[in-house]
Amino acid sequence: MKDTLQYLFDGNQLSREHARRSLLEVGKGQHSESEFASFLTVFKMRPITSEELAGFRDAMFELSTKVDLADHEAIDVVGTGGDGKNTFNISTLACFVIAGAGVKVTKHGNYAVSSKSGSSNVLELLGYQFSNDIEKLQADLEKGGFCFLHAPLFHPAMKHIAPVRRALKVPTFFNILGPMINPSAPKYQLIGVNNAENFNHYQHVYETLDINFAIVNSRDGYDEVSLTDDVRVGLKSGEKIITPAGFNMQKVAPEKLFGGHSVEDAAKIFMAVLEGNGTNEQKNVVLANAALGLQLVFPTKSLEECVAMARESLESGKALNSLNSVTK
After folding, report:
1. What would the pLDDT profile of 11-52 be if each residue is shown by its tens digit?
2. Which residue of 39, 73, 78, 110 is surrounded by the most CB atoms within 10 Å?
3. CA-CA distances (angstroms) from residue 223 to 21, 32, 84, 205, 286?
4. Whether 40 contacts 160, CB under 8 Å
5. DSSP for 222-285, written as a single string
6. CA quadruple 189, 192, 195, 201: dihedral, nearest 10
7. Chain CA centroid to CA 68, Å
8. DSSP codes joined into one string, 200-225
């Protein structure tokens, strides 16, 4: 680590392999907290490169506790967070809509960092039991088409990393690594990022991975399709811009996506949407995200057809049944 630190202090950038090797050593507890803090600080003093981020992703994925769910050809819908918008749990709701439409979902998530309610917060309150037991995860997929991988149960290396992150009290590159390290390695991923810089990083990294991906960033900074503005979408085939009208929906005012002041507030919104009692704005933004996920799985279908699939899942109660099947 001393040599790596000096290399970085001299103004150099790490190759993907050098970055991977460095973080592997940290994750195995081979370096002191002071050394790791110095290492993290380098990437606060200058922008991280896509190569470095890819290497760190490789290390954390290698260190994770894997679960083989490949037979399900599942999708993950997840965001980096950090957009400061405090929306309700749009991505997690979209997962149940997708599951209700017949596509298996293996969602990776955690407790909230910058919002009031992360996916783990709301699912825990609604009765989902976190586990890394593959039989339980398989059973959830069979019953409800959905299983949840609560990040702390799958990333043992964090015991060497988390104390330093807590001590530093500032965002680090770990804040954007989470979506990249789903230990089930889903076939499809709809990933939301919170700014243009991270969009470009994700595009560069995901182009090197064997995953069918769509990266989204709303032009006004949301890490999902917000319908508050146009959304930038990155695919293996290139980029496109989708307007709210592209989903055949009206533009939404930002305050309509507010997630409340507590996890309890977020859970009430969550259930209202699934039970058909959400506002039109809440419903539409969930349908838009679910539709983009469905189009990733069914690329020959139009966005209009995928919106219709998502709407049928939600309005028929299939999405609600998916949640009930894994929480009761």
Report:
1. 999 999 999 999 999 999 999 999 999 999 999 999 999 999
2. 78
3. 30, 34, 10, 17, 13
4. no
5. -SS--SSS-EEEEETTEEEEE-GGGGT-----GGGGB--SSHHHHHHHHHHHHTT-S-HHHHHH
6. -10
7. 19
8. HHHHHHHTTSS-EEEEEEETTS-SS-
**CA 157 to CA 41: how far, in whole Å?**
19
Nearest to 281 by CA among 305, 308, 257, 262: 257
Task: Compute the 3-state secondary structure of the chain and give helix, strand, coil in percent, each to the nearest 5.
Answer: 55, 10, 35
Q: How confident is the model at residue 83 (pLDDT cuts 50, 70, 90)?
A: confident
Q: How far apart are CA 16 and CA 52, in angstroms?
A: 5
How is domain 73-151+183-327 classified at the CATH fold level? Pyrimidine Nucleoside Phosphorylase; Chain A, domain 2 (3.40.1030)
pLDDT category of residue 9 using cuts at 50, 70 and 90 = very high
The CATH architecture one would assign to domain 2-63 is Up-down Bundle (1.20)
Torsion of CA 39, 44, 47, 52, to 10 degrees: 30
Question: What are 105's two structure tokens?
Answer: 């979902």
Three-class SS state of 53 = helix
Kindly report, residue by residue over 223-259, the tens digit of the pLDDT: 999 999 999 999 999 999 999 999 999 999 999 999 9
Q: What type of residue is 317?
A: G
Identity of the amino acid at 236? K
Q: What is the average pLDDT value for the chain, to the nearest integer? A: 95
Strands laid side by side in the 212-218 sheet: 146-150, 105-109, 75-79, 188-192, 212-218, 231-235, 238-242
CB 252 within 8 A of CB 245: no
- Helices (runs of H) and strands (runs of E) counted in the chain: 13, 7
Q: Check pLDDT > 80 for residue 115.
A: no
